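Example record

One chain of 361 residues, shown exactly as stored in the release files.
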Amino acid sequence: MITPLDVSLHIFPFIHYTFTDLNNYIVKLEPPPLARFNDVDTLIQFAQKWGKRHGYALTKKNSHQGKNVYLACDQYGEYINLKGPTQRKSTTKKCGCKFRLRGSIPALSDINSEEVHTIHLTRSGYWVLVPLEILHNHPPSTTPSVHLIHCWLNKKELVQVEGLMKANVGPNQILSQLYSQGNTCTTSRNLYNYKGHLSIKERNGQSQLEYLIRLLKESNWIHSNKININGKLTNLFFAHQASIELGHINHHVILIDATYRTCKYNLPLFHMVGQTATGHTFSLAFCYMEWENDNGYILALQELKMLFQPPRIPKVIIMDREPALKMAIELVFPSSIHNYCTWHISKNLIQNCCKYFQEDD
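Predicted structure tokens for this chain:
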């Protein structure tokens, strides 16, 4: 008697083999037994769970709604390249495996109660799972995670993951929590992909920059943007109200750093950082700029200056050795002292002085 889906199946663990010629190897990985189900979804779930514990996965090959469904090994068929040659090297798992199952609603004359075990029999009819081809031409997989379909999350896990992601929990932490709760085979890559899917869903057709501007308008952020005559965004300045209030209290020292073109839209991020009396730093404001030139820095610094009251203009501004930024600071903050960052000074010393010394020195 086969146990229902909510009961753990008694299935043998994976066996590791060594193969010299997989093309000539035929192995009989245990197919699911004959069984009855109350609907096609339960049938497919049972077949997938069985295959997961026996070293293979199934995919729906073709079906007729309300009549039958055919399941094949996920390594069936041959790979057909429809995209043409690509620079990225890739391989395929398809090896022409002929393993197949059929799920169908049989006629009453086709029923043999001695051969078919019953699961969730209902009055409205049932589905029967029958193996058609039980031979595989490949060894069992060593872990279920190599099969994409076994890495999918169920509905309960998806709800849990979505809630954790909205709470800003990292994918690796979520993965550890899922592993501690049950027998999941998902990977961090799947969680990152699902996070991207949620982001696209939440943006509702908007681009990432459009979505960012919408969030800034709906939240407690001060922001401004510049758009050129072609409708392209050239500057996007934003600062949180709490950071501004903290900057009014700790306005003596400002650190400025420009992260080079690392965003999707190839816009440098201009990061303005404040420093408290205890030496701790906090993000004061941000600005995406089209170009790291005089005009770009001047626009960003002018927006920053508008956040401060006249008596609270920064007295010291720390920066790296950027000529355009230095010129912009002298223009916008003429009374402020600008110094170079010691980290950049040390880095340049090491980089430029080491070539004058031998390795033994």
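Notes: The first strand starts at residue 35 and ends at 37.
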